[in-house]
Specification:
about 120 residues; alpha+beta; 4-stranded antiparallel β-sheet; Low quality protein: uncharacterized protein k02a2.6-like; Retrovirus_Pol_polyprotein
C-alpha cells in the first residue's frame, strides 16, 4: 500500500500539471476552458506570452511617436500663466509664477486668491 503522505503531496502536483497541459485535440488546457485564462506555472513563467510581447512593442512604438510630438514645459519665475478657477467667476484667471514648488508644480501669485499652488498641466 502506498504511503499516504507521499500520495497527498504528489496528487495535487499531478492534477495541476494535467490541468495546465494543452490537449492535442483542441490545443487548449482544461483549466483554460473552465476559467478562460491560463494558470501560472514555473514553465509558463520562463516563456513570455506572445500577446504580452506584442503589446509591449505596440506601447513602445506609441511612446516613441508621442515623444516626437511632445515638448517640455519650462516655467520660469515671473512668467505669466493662466490657472483654472474652480469657483465662481471666469474659468481661466491670469497669474504670475512666484516660485517653483516641485518638479511639476509652482506657486502662482494671483489677484483674487493670493498665492496658490499650480500644476503645470
Amino acid at each position: 500500500m502506498p504511503d499516504r503522505r507521499k500520495f497527498g503531496k504528489r496528487l495535487p502536483c499531478f492534477l495541476l500539471k494535467y490541468r495546465i497541459t494543452p490537449h492535442l485535440t483542441n490545443g487548449v488546457s482544461p483549466v483554460e476552458l473552465l476559467t478562460g485564462r491560463q494558470l501560472k506555472s514555473r514553465l509558463g513563467l520562463l516563456y513570455p506570452s506572445v500577446t504580452q510581447s506584442v503589446k509591449n512593442q505596440h506601447n513602445m512604438r506609441q511612446k516613441y511617436y508621442q515623444d516626437q510630438s511632445s515638448r517640455k514645459k519650462v516655467i520660469e519665475p515671473n512668467q505669466r500663466v493662466l490657472y483654472r478657477n474652480y469657483g465662481r467667476g471666469s474659468k481661466w484667471v491670469p497669474g504670475a509664477v512666484n516660485a517653483k514648488a516641485g518638479a511639476v508644480s509652482c506657486k502662482v501669485q494671483t489677484e483674487q486668491h493670493g498665492i496658490i499652488r499650480w500644476h503645470k498641466n
